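== Polypeptide entry ==
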Amino acid sequence: MEDLKTLKGEVDSIIFKSEDTGFCVLMLNCDNDLITVVGEMGDVEEGEDLVVTGEFTSHQKFGEQFKVHIFERSLPTTSAAIQRYLASGAISGVGPVLAKKLVNKFGDDTLDIIENTPDRLTEIDGITVKKAEKISQEFKTTFAARSLMSYLNKFEIETSYGIKAWKRWGNTAEQIIKSNPYVLCIQGVDLSFSRADAVAAKSDIPADSECRIKAGITYILRQNADQGHTCLPLDSLVKTAVSYLDVDEKLIKKVIEDETEEENLYYYDKHGRRFVMLADFYKAEDYIARRLAIMRQISYDNKIDFSEVIDLEEENNGIQYEKIQREAINLALSKGFLVLTGGPGTGKTTTLNAIISLYQQQGLNVMICAPTGRAAKRLSDLTGFDAKTIHRLLEVKHTSGDTLAFIHDENNLLDCDALIIDEMSMVDSCLFEAVLRAISVTCKLVLVGDSDQLPSVGAGNVLKDIIDSGVMSVVTLKEIFRQAQESDIVMNAHKIVNGEHIDLASKDKDFFFMQRLEYGELQDLVVELCKTRLPKAYDYSPIDDIQVLSP
């Protein structure tokens, strides 16, 4: 930080500006010397006076630039600068022509008049009282946004966070943040707790303040949610919070109690132990439980035996289904409320193809999806049916708070009679809640996946929890088909699941074990395999055909 320099000048021109991040590239006139300045400076406009602190850097393509760390901005004060500022479009409704008229009439006082005595703007031909008020309001809004960015910049908070805060709270954002800097930690703004804590400390907010403890507890729960946990034991949460926040245990417990009364947190009791959940995860899992219970009642087994239909499907496709596969197909047809699970090579795709085909023969509108693009593409390739990602199926929209939401929900249901979700082990609680909200209670639902796979990246272990709950019929395919037995990868995967030792000696199929004890040797081996050996042996593309998985 000792090498940082400070420049002062007037914004001559804006080369590039991102409204989403606030990143700017501009030319700063410093005593008639134009300097390229880059950094997050928000909605800076031509004609503004800037004081920027940062360092000179050299860009490979664009040459020398001044990279901004901290900036201060002020409105232009001279007539010429004010006219350039207004002509740049800084205020909606004011263009170059009107900017010239305003400055010719009011000179250096133009911006003060716009803000404080807008009725005087009507002295200019063409400006009505209504338009004068609108120009003044636009200026005040712009000034409030400018003030927020400058305030946050004092704490070295990037403009991108200020933009998110502005989108959420508008003109009141700065006052809200000043009274409680921890609001910057909420979802949609997403500043880290430690950085908000630093702002609070500089703002003389006590370490044992309620707003700090609330934010700290939420942060701990969010951190655990990022590790896949929808809740924490109360005793563990209290212990962690006391250590992390360095405050009295009684205060922690009081705040948790208050937050549960306000329904920002929820208690969940299981096996005599109390857990604490954030509101969004509690509501998601509560909705899933209640909704599946209702669907279970509606999707009662009609006891119809579809054996003849399944026989015909076998004949048409030249396939003979195993007994357990026939059971799964029959349940999907008679009940339409099923979990189909099993390891690799056990015939899930074959069974799924039959279910989809017979649903369509019944005239049902079938939709199939998976949580990721790769999984959806693989599902399309294996089944021959169009599969979408869950997000694409539900159609993502962005709310005013820049948070994720979906077009399809309980008020705009999917036109779907049967929904099949593959790779269900990767679906988290909040996403599955969104799926259930978007389908009718009479929609047939088939969940396909391997419960022995790693759970979702998001919080929750939905597939395993559903299987353990017994709320849905579960068919587990276990027999490994002959084609799959040709793969040592498949066979070893099943051995791992069954707690057996895998075969490390076999090198005549598709599984090879290469031991390297040194990190550098291991790194070199992976590079060599991807770059040379696998492409040469199997005609693979290093970019398109090879995937490296690492813990």
Remarks:
- Residues 129-153 form the longest helix (25 residues).
